[in-house]
Amino acid sequence: MSQQLRRPVLSEEGDYLLVDKPLDWTSFDVVAKIRGAYKRCGAKRKVGHCGTLDPKATGLLILATGRKTKTISSLEILDKTYEGVIRLGAKTASHDTESGEYDIRDVSHLDERAIRAAAASMVGERMQQPPMHSAVWHNGKRLYELARQGHEVKERKARQIEIHRFEITEVSLPCVRFFIRVSKGAYIRVIAHELGEQLGVGGYLSELKRVAIGEFRLSDAVSVSEIVDEIGRAAALAIEE
Q1: Which of 54, 103, 111, 220 is catalytic?
Q2: Is 96 annotated as catalytic?
Q3: In tens digits, what is the pLDDT along the chain, a chain of 241 residues?
Q4: N or C: which end of the chain has fewer CB within 10 A?
């Protein structure tokens, strides 16, 4: 099944494409690149993504093409699984590496068992307020647009999320490596920030890779360039036929 999902097709029925999103690309950048590849081949197709990945995150992004775009909502509700690194002892306004560090603190006193226990204690349902540096809409503008203009919206509506699993897999202070599985709508950047607050030293997300969406795996994904090339090959074969 994974081979079928990773193969672009030119039929209007469409397909699901498993993409390994590169660092510093937005999810829309990936959509635009694939949409452009279809257009250059004369096969104009709808293309949409099933769950945004931040520019500073890498890993699995599922695209839907053609009529499959009508089923995007069924994939967006799936749990997401990530691996990453949290930098303790510092904060950033965006809760990741998009903005600079501040409030630097010593972390040498932190105990490895306490760090693991703090992460484990966060498992379960909780209310989470979207960060200012997010794509959530507010009065016709994205929150990140307002944040970059220096504005803060304090009344951001919190949503219920669930952390199914949160494990610290390696401690090398000031950084900790983690594995986490969460429900739809959870911001890992906020979880990293909250872990730092719980430990009393602050923290932010320094690396993030999405490794699974439901049963779909990053190991079955291909690069953007590979998909673009494959669309070109499929179009050439269609012409020959």
Answers
A1: 54
A2: no
A3: 344 444 555 666 778 899 999 999 999 999 999 999 888 888 778 888 988 888 899 999 999 888 888 888 888 899 999 999 999 999 998 899 988 999 999 999 999 999 999 999 999 999 997 766 666 655 666 666 656 666 665 666 778 999 999 999 999 999 999 999 999 989 999 999 999 999 999 999 999 999 999 999 999 999 999 988 888 887 666 555 4
A4: C
For 2-77+215-240, which CATH class? alpha beta
Whole-model pTM: value is 0.86
Residue with tokens 């690194």: 85
Provide the residue count of the chain: 241
For the chain, which residues make up each domain, given as ranges?
2-77+215-240, 80-131+158-213
